[in-house]
Amino acid sequence: xxxxxxxxxxxxxxxxxxxxxxxxxxIAEQICFALSQLAAGFKDSDTSLFSPYxxxxxxxxxxxxxxxxxxxxxxxxxxxxxxxFLRRMG
Length: 90
Prior knowledge:
Layout: H1 10-20, H2 25-41, H3 54-89
Helix pairs in contact: 1-2, 2-3
């Protein structure tokens, strides 16, 4: 049985996975796992077919972290504002 992921379809698979890292955090977590497993599948070759995607993967993961932090900060900011407002009212 031929491998499911091969050099011909790898670029499309990686592209789709990287685009999906911008999804909701719980989806992005699953995508990270998929990327990890995909990279592990190529670790036994002398030059990994996955190596050319390393910089793009790191960039996508860092962007997800920044996005999550921005969202968390916005929620915290809103909560603090509401707590301050309630304190003034009470």
